[in-house]
Amino acid sequence: MDFQLDADQKRWLEEVRAFLGENVTPALRAEMAEHDIEFLGGEVTAFRKKIGDKGWFGLNWPKEFGGLGLGAVYQHLLVSEFEYWGVPGPDLTVTSVAPMIMRNGTARNREEFLPPIARGEMTCAVGYSEPDAGTDLASLRTTAVLDGDEWVINGSKIWNSMAQRVTHEWLCVRTDKDVPKHKGISVIIVPIDAPGITIRPIMAWSDYRTNETFFDNVRVPVTNLIGEVNQGWRYIIGALDLERGALTNVGDLRRSVDELIGLAKEERADGLRPIDDPALRRKIAQLDAEVEAARLMGFEASSLLEDGIIPSVLVSAEKIYSSELRQRIADVGTQVLGMAGVLAIGTEGAPLDGKFERLYRAAPLLRFGAGANEVLRDVIAQRGHGLPRGGR
């Protein structure tokens, strides 16, 4: 394995950093501090338009689909840098939904959905979990019934993150009740503003908003079906694997450890520096090494994607490792900061405006987002090592 970037990849990294240095403005940071990325106008929208104008949402797409054909490693570098700077880049619509449309969609699907995704104009929430279908996703009950040239959709989705600020749902539905449950599922693209859709917020402990979304006789064209009817389980599994890989970019982890090192070098009120404590210094050094290990795992997964392989087992392992590493970073951060580490965002005197307190509360989210870590350990055992399924 070559652990170094080649000359073209290094130039690409310099181009991305130059773009961020020019376009991550104080106004953009101020808007994100107030609204995160919920504000559908102003600086965030303008920033996303610049990304779309450069073709970077589709940078690793094949050129026949309107992409730049640069490969998965280039996208991995871009997303990691965007995360390091803390600004919105390519989301799951680009990294998970679009690749599955390319692989499995009809010609109409590709023509209708890929161009607006590439421009950053179309974004999707993934409509998977339901109140009675979480880990056992194939037990979903939301239905789509064909009525002439339209699908009529009824049901609900829970933990439907981003539904309040996207344009469409990548929605998994039951289209055949008379076959084994994994066999009767399809995926349909549904405009979020279609009549009959209601979105209710659910606020998590980390102040993160997710949603419960209801579909009451929602009608969409028959052509919004992705690929073939009743083949959706395969598309969902592929998209979930890609989602896990997208969630494991370590740019934000690298930034957190860098900031943690800086804070540890500062004198506290008692005149001591946390970095001078040998035990704490070893913990920070361990985190630094673990972030580098996670970075190399990300490059390995990207290399496999460039070869046309969806690395299901690897991205599952990477997702477990990086999400649990995020919690360890938050734990050590609060130890370094002491009592100040529990000051929340917006509190006077909170170090880095309460970043590590927020990280501590937000870290559990990614341990179950895109598949709970306990379940993914079973996935690794079964797919990676051929071990039998649990139970009788």
Topology:
Blueprint lengths: L6 H17 L2 H10 L6 H12 L18 H14 L6 H13 L2 H12 L5 E4 L15 E5 L2 E9 L9 E7 L10 E7 L5 E7 L5 E13 L10 H15 L4 H14 L13 H29 L5 H26 L17 H8 L2 H4 L4 H13 L7
Parallel strand pairs: 1-4
Antiparallel strand pairs: 2-3, 3-7, 4-5, 6-7
Low-confidence stretches: none
The helix fraction, in percent, is 40-55%
Instruction: Report the sheet with the most strands, covering strand number, pairing sense and barrel closure.
Output: 4 strands, antiparallel
Strand-residue proportion? 5-15%
Multimerization state: single chain
Shape summary: globular
Listing every helix as H and every strand as E from the N terminus to the C terminus, the arrangement reads: HHHHHHEEEEEEEHHHHHHH
Whole-number mean pLDDT? 87
Strand segment count: 7
Cα-to-Cα separation, first versus last residue: 42 Å
Number of helical regions: 13
Rounded to an integer in angstroms, the radius of gyration calculated over CA atoms is 22 Å
Describe the strand arrangement of the main beta sheet, using strand numbers. Answer: 2-3-7-6
Structural class estimated from helices and strands = alpha+beta
Quick rundown:
48% of the residues lie in helices and 13% in strands. The chain is α+β, with helices and mostly antiparallel strands and 392 residues long.
